[in-house]
Every structure is written in structure tokens, then in C-alpha cells.
User: What shape does this take?
Amino acid sequence: MIFIRCIFSGLWLLFVAVVPIFSQEKPVAAILSFHNTSEKFYLDEVAKSFPTLLKTELAQTRSVVIVEREKLDAVLKEQDFVLSDLSEDKDKQAKVGNLIGADYVITGEVSEAEGRLRIDVAVTRISSGQVIAEKVTGPSRKNVNTMARLLANNIAYELSGEGKKIPSMKLGGAPVKEFAIATLVLGGGAYLAAQKTSDLRAAYRGTTDLAKMNARYKKADRWNKATISLQVGTAATAIGLVYAFIKNASSDREVLADMDLPEISNFAVAPYIDSKTSGLNLSFSF
Assistant: This one.
């Protein structure tokens, strides 16, 4: 009987210890506006569309809860705020974040650096004003989906501690697989065609009948031309395969994250507002 009680007591202690781990709430984040800080007008579209891309990728990590845009729009309308004005106004960010129940607000800047598209993200903790900085660069605006995926992974790690930070993501680039398959197929065809040509030439040389000799010569000649064509095709695809490997190995075919960006702001002041109280949060970091 005492043994059974010990077992039940042990199970109960295990239950009490484990349940809080699974009941921990996920961090809640609201994605606000991104600004184009360059003089390149074509990056305006990237700044406009990137918050939606980042929201989708963050939601797919399942580590962070994202505030729905409808809820954000309702609060903005109620407070008579404009979304684009929030990217540089920390007071308004904190107020909106508290009203929508977010733990963090995410803003960003889009620019170009050294010929690469650059996106800087600031993740502000509303309760303290502490800011976590993340950055990603890519070859061009065509790679914004991969850039959003890399940023989402690293932001989710910073906020939840789940998974791990990733320094880069390879882009698909040149079709290595397709070139490899084409090289194998054409190379195999060239080998078989060469064997067929050799057999027909041997048959031609062993023929004494003039009519058969002429027919076999023409047939061997056709197979010889087919062999040459297949060999040329094999060489071309092999060159393409080497080029694809070299191109995909280049850093120009990567989306890169800056793993050494420090947390911003040694001192921060953020207003706190809820349904009953209001005040200021002061944050110091050393």
C-alpha cells in the first residue's frame, strides 16, 4: 500500500512539474509598417509587401502568435493613428501594442547596401522598451520570400528560444539537378549510339553484296551523325552542370543574416497602458 502511495505521489509531482512547461504562453507579436530608407523608389513595393510576408513566415514557425491585421486596424482607427507613422514613434508603438495585447511590436527598414537588398528589423519588447535587432541581406528583391523566411526563423528563436538561429539560406539558383539528369541521359544515349555505329560499320565491312553494302553504309552514317550530336549535347550539359555548381556555391546565391548584431538601446523609456493603470517603464542594459 505504501509502495502504491509512493508511485502516485511521484506521478503527481511529475505532473506538477511538467504541466507549467506545456502551459507557457507563446509570445504575441504585432507587425507594424516597414519603411524604404533608400532613394530607390522601386523598394517602396518591398517595404509595403514585406510585413505580410514576414507575418506568414512567423505564423508558420508556430513559436509566436501574430496579432491579426483586423484587430490592429481597429485599434489604429480607434486611436486615430496611421500605421506608417508608427515605425519611428516608440510611444505610439507601445500604446498600440498594449491595446492589442502584444508582447512585442516589429518594425523594419528596407534599403540597399553594396548592391544587395537589406532589411533591418527592430523587435521591441513593450514591457521594457528593450529592442532586439535582426538583419538580412539578399542578392535582389526577387529573393524577399527567402529573406522573410530567414528573418522569421531568427526572430522566433529570439522571442521563444525554440529552434536555432540560422546564418544563411541557399537560393535555388541554377538547375543543377536538371543539368545532371540531362548529362546522364545524353551521355548514355551517346554511348549506345556509338556501340550501334560500331556494329553497323563492322557489318558493312563484312558485306560483299554491293546493294547491301550501300544500305549498311548509309545506316552506319546516320548512326554516326546521331552519335556526334549526342556527344555534343553531353558536352554542353556537362559544361552547364559545372557552371551551375560554381554559381550556386557563390555567396551571391545566398540570403545572409547578421549573427553579430547587438541588442539596441542601453536606455529605453516606454509608456505602459492597460484598462486600469498607466505609467512608464524604464530599461537599462549594461
Q: What stands out?
A: Residues 15-23, 260-278, 280-286 have pLDDT under 50 and may be disordered. The CA atoms of residues 5 and 11 lie 10 Å apart. The longest strand covers residues 104-113.
